Predict the 3D structure of the following.
Amino acid sequence: MNGVAVHLNDLRRTFGAVHALDGLDLHIEPGELIALLGPSGCGKTTALRILAGLEDADSGRVLVGGKDITGLPANRRDMGMVFQAYSLFPHLTALENVQFGLKLRRRAGGDRAAAMLDLVGISEHAGRYPHQLSGGQQQRVALARALAIEPQVLLLDEPLSALDAKVRVQLRDEIRRIQTEVGTTTLFVTHDQEEALAIADRVGVMRSGRLEQLAAPAEVYLRPASAFVADFVGLSNRLPGHVDGDTVTVLGTRLPLVKPATGGPQVTALVRPEAVGVVPDPDGPARVLSTAFLGPTSRVTVEAGDSIVVAQVSGELLASLSAGSPVRLELRPVPVSLDD
Amino acid sequence: MATVLDGPELAAPVPPVRAPRGRLRLNQLRSLLGTLPFFAYVTVFLVIPTLVVAIGAFAGDGGFTLANVSALGDSYVLDAFGRSILLSAVTALIGAVLGAVLAYALATARPGGLLRRVVTAASGVLAQFGGVTLAFAFIATIGLSGFVTVFLRDNLGVDIYSGGVWLFELPGLVLVYTYFQIPLMVIVFLPALDGIRPQWREATESLGGSTWQYWTKVAGPLLAPAFLGSTLLLFANAFSAYATAAALVSQGNPIVPLQIRSALTSEVVLGQQNLGKAMALGMVVVVAVVMTLYALLQKRTARWLG
Amino acid sequence: MAGLRARRARRQSAFRWTVLAVMGIFFLLPLAAMVEFTTRGDSGTWSLLADWPKLSETYPDLADGIVASLGQALLTALLMLVLLVPTAIWVRLRLPGLRPLVEFICLLPLTIPAIVLVVGLAPVYAWVNYFLGGSSLTLTFAYTILVLPYAYRAIDAGLSAIDVRTLAEAARGLGASWFTVMARVVLPNIRSAVLSAAFLTVALVLGEFTIASLLNRTNLQVAINLLGKSSATMSVAVSLAALILAFVLLLLLSLFGDRRKASR
């Protein structure tokens, strides 16, 4: 099965005085999985619902496979949708839920439904009702139901946010596996940055109804296009710096900039904890404030001058540090963003 | 507070867990004593009356008899039961359909909105509004000199009673009962409608279903138990009602509650008292069956729409 | 823009207002008719109703009924509270195994029509007459049974909303007696539930007709019914007044319920 391309062109939508979408442009390649990431109220769910036909746009166009479907009602759009939770029909078994869409299309669908339940790994519960299934199992059935109708586009609206952390990671990886297998163009909406980075071909970070950055996960993480992206994706230290040309000096180290500075020379630089090296040094100018063991990589909070710096260190190094230890900080020369 | 009391030794604090058996039993007895007033009271004023009805239905001059119960087969008693059931069924159906429509109109309104609060509060009052006051309200409306009757006669030349004064007979009771059945339906059916999640409609649409298919394949089957259960509750409500009919019906005793009244107050025929008890027992059986079905349907609704 | 969703919302809104308008007419018409009926030709019905000495002189039966109903409502509310509140708390604290039975008994009157209860109560009231006389206030006993399901549900809901056990354990741990636990710890926390139960009781008792009429006692509804035979206008006026009173009571009740939910 080959996916189709999806275009969202200049979508605008206001709810009262709030601009949920403020001229959103998004292009999804055939078979691609794009994760829309952003804080609540950034418009990511509105974008997905307009694509699904569950919400009207005030202006703008939606194209799927080159065809303008802006005025098409939801039930003629051919999209598979997975909701946050509770979307299974409670009076139907898992199998009947998956068959539902097939029956609406007057296809027998017994075999296909069973195959879909098999694909999501839940065939042994085919006869159970939704209230007899766990949250993770329910979402698997919901995914099978959405895929059973062989939709042109798969839409996932925070499908994992109601689940436990462990199930969330497991199901996330499985959604990715299945999506790659069937090759359906997919839009995945989430507010969890780790989830977005792990699952997507490209991540779109949204803010106030616009895309701040749309790029591959590594790109978004390593070269955030703005301070907002740097802040929202991953943890960042906010450290005072001094701009000089296309570099910035932070804690005595010269670092390259992601993009040229626009303001004055005194700036706040955003530095990732993993870009901060901690070296035990009896004459070091900095002091360890606290340590936290988090497994293979652990976290140290250091007081350096007027700044509090969070650094990511190995578990071994952590053992040699304790509150009050004198240390020296070394910043790795990865490109940094500035707070604007 | 919870953290302080989380300790296992405090889980069941007062009757010491490892008390000797005898003391434990004594403790339990003392605890039971605390409920004595309640149980004594309901025994005298609820259990004994119930037994009086149940036993009296099978009691004659010389002890046990089936005469009262078999008297239920008399045509006038059967007719009364038939009319009672018909009246209850008709008003339950009308009330259920119109009440469901009204409830749906409310369910589509803003959840915490003023409209919804006012209408549900008014429904709560009107559902309880039965009896004599309701009868007089309708006499003032469509009685012989009622507001509407006079208005229609004087202004439009329409005489609503050209075929006889039906207000004080069974058709009148249907109209008047509807007045409290619709609000009752709103109260009992609205929670079920609120249990319908918007995701189900959206899922149906994204799977290619039309509005018609949503109602026939999703919302319809989901609401059916709640609707049926609510209709049964309305049936029991109308079947038990007495005061409205007593105040309104002027001639004869068309329905069972009025038959029971006449059996109770009749001093002419001996044994009528026990026939009254047999009819009362018959009513309890009908209501108990209906309410049991209601409870079963309610359970299913709670699982689907809870 | 096409605005498919907006069109659906407009359709729904039109449907909603049509339904509400039609239903509104059906439900308001009898109330309006009562107003019209009692002010027709202005026979001074309402001014008479507001003048208690004159009213009790003109319609002594009605005055007796009103007094009797108020007394019954007050006594029933008291008896219900004394009987039900301690029992409900006690069962939750000490005899949880007994709760299903208590609940079953309390909800039983729902399946026993009032007319059936009267049949069974007749012999019981023969004894009541023997011991306490035939005062209309003795109806309190029957009415307490009648309001049991509604009052129980209100109080039970209040108790479910708080963790009675933990509260009691905390108080006992601080040295409180069982009486103190019930009166000073649990009761203040279910105040609004108790108030709801009392309001419901008053509203129900003011509307009761069946038992009073068939046990040959008087109350407001019996008096209205009696009056209907001689003065239709007056009986409609009193009906409307009683209805408005019940309306206000239950409206207060629902407002109370809302505020309780909002504060949580």
